[in-house]
TrEMBL record:
Keywords: Membrane, Transmembrane, Transmembrane helix. Pfam families: EI24. InterPro entries: CysZ/EI24 (IPR059112). Its main location: membrane. This is EI24 domain-containing protein. The chain crosses the membrane at residues 23-45, 65-83, 134-161, 194-219. It comes from Aurantiacibacter flavus. It is found in: Membrane. It is a multi-pass membrane protein.
Length: 238
């Protein structure tokens, strides 16, 4: 696990340097834009559903205002639940640039040998990751409701599910650039992958910090994959 802590520290140290900082600002702006559009669409959808359900303006005085408040609250809750999916989909789209920026600075030899992923493949990866996250969280939802009485069980379940998902996504966005040289099996251990996903999943719950979390995850994953691969190669030569 020492390689995990080193990779996390290196990833954090690179967050505000040159190319990574520019990608952080770009991805945060796009995430906010998508988030705002989804929240707006969600508000209109919930407002329409409540109207269809009978909470129309003529039902009683103030029904429209009550419906508006309820729609806004429900839309914000839905948008908050979708934040992780939207943020990671955006980062998946920019993954190649983030990984390349880290590799050029710390692993120039690996950067020179890496394959450039076509935009179509990056888009497919982003959509595949978003679909996997949505389905996994929907499957976990009934169990999360059953754990609601515990006070913390629901949050822990969603954190564990997303830690597993994020660890895999962050690893893959780095490793896909190098599978043509080193094979399909990534060198990162399951515990290190889960630890990275757990840290990023936890940071995504913190306001404002959640803008940094996906980029920190991508940068740290780059260090983690390359350091784990170097350790595997070294072990193989012993």
């Amino acid at each position: 696990m020492a390689v995990f802590f080193t990779s996390l520290a290196l990833g954090f140290g690179q967050m505000f340097q040159g190319a990574v900082l520019r990608l952080l600002l770009k991805s945060a702006a796009l995430t906010l834009l998508i988030f705002a559009v989804l929240a707006g669409l969600g508000w209109y959808a919930v407002d329409w559903l409540l109207t269809v359900a009978g909470l129309g303006d003529r039902l009683f005085t103030g029904a429209g205002a009550l419906r508006g408040v309820a729609s806004a609250v429900l839309a914000l809750i839905g948008a908050w639940l979708l934040w992780r999916i939207v943020a990671m989909a955006v980062i998946q789209f920019y993954a190649d640039e983030i990984v390349l920026a880290v590799e050029r600075r710390h692993y120039p030899e690996a950067a020179a040998q890496a394959r450039e992923l076509p935009v179509s493949m990056q888009l497919r990866q982003a959509l595949r990751g978003a679909r996997r996250a949505l389905l996994s969280n929907l499957i976990a939802a009934p169990f999360a409701l059953a754990l609601a009485f515990t006070g913390i069980g629901t949050a822990l379940l969603f954190w564990a599910v997303n830690a597993w998902l994020l660890g895999r996504e962050l690893q893959d966005m780095v490793w896909l650039r190098h599978t043509h040289l080193a094979g399909e099996q990534a060198p990162v251990s399951g515990s290190a992958r889960l630890a990275l996903g757990g840290v990023v999943a936890a940071l995504m719950l913190v306001p404002f910090v959640n803008f940094l979390a996906p980029v920190l995850g991508a940068a740290s994953a780059t260090h983690l994959v390359h350091r784990a691969q170097a350790a595997r190669v070294h072990k193989g030569f012993r």
